[in-house]
Amino acid sequence: MSKEYVFALHNQIEGSRIQLRPIQLSDAEDMYEYASDEETTKYVFETHKSLEDTKENIAKYFIMSPLGKYAIVLKEKHKLIGTIDLRVDAEDKKAEIGYTLNKAYWGKGYTTEAGKLMLQLGFKELQLQRIFAFHDERNPASGRVMEKLGMTYEGTFRSNRFVKGETVTDKCYSILKEEYFSN
Q1: What's the rounded mean pLDDT across residues 175-180?
Q2: Are strands 79-89 and 166-176 parallel, antiparallel or unpaired?
Q3: Given this model, what pLDDT does residue 55 score?
Q4: Structural domain spans, the chain
Q5: Which letter, b or e, does each residue of 116-138 get, where b requires 16 or more Cβ atoms within 10 Å of its Cβ?
Q6: Of the candidates 125, 83, 114, 117, which has an alpha carbon nearest to the alpha carbon of residue 100?
Q7: Which site among 1, 98, 119, 176 is 20 to 30 Å from 150 CA-CA?
Q8: Is this structure's pTM higher than 0.90?
Q9: What dotted CATH number matches 3-182?
């Protein structure tokens, strides 16, 4: 089964408190709420200056190629509070997880819940061997999420990428298929 077909079959995933689903233009106001906040976007992407920036981003990044990219939606409020994606390299049977969450919802376990749903999709449905994630070394809270997902610290990637015009050093965590199923 191709990764595209698996993602199409699993374009909505239910958690206990959240739902993962495709991002739509109608999510722009909820996304702008956190995408326009410098503290939330500090380590991940350019802060949105307007609602139009957010709509443009949704169209270019999430709608143009939606497979593997999910809105994190609070079930009780039907509110988008963040995004999570699984970037799959099918040839090497691995994927990278990336996520962003509205700071009003930090510390409540929503990213961990979404991450667990991604691990389940990756290992059970996509038959991946390895799932990894990077975080800016200045953002240890993101590393704690990775640890809660059962990921193991692998190493530091010095001057790994550019974010907002500056070089960023990343820490890498991963979990292997056998580790996932042994937990």
Answers
A1: 98
A2: unpaired
A3: 97
A4: 3-182
A5: bbbbebbbeebebebbbbbbbbe
A6: 83
A7: 1
A8: yes
A9: 3.40.630.30
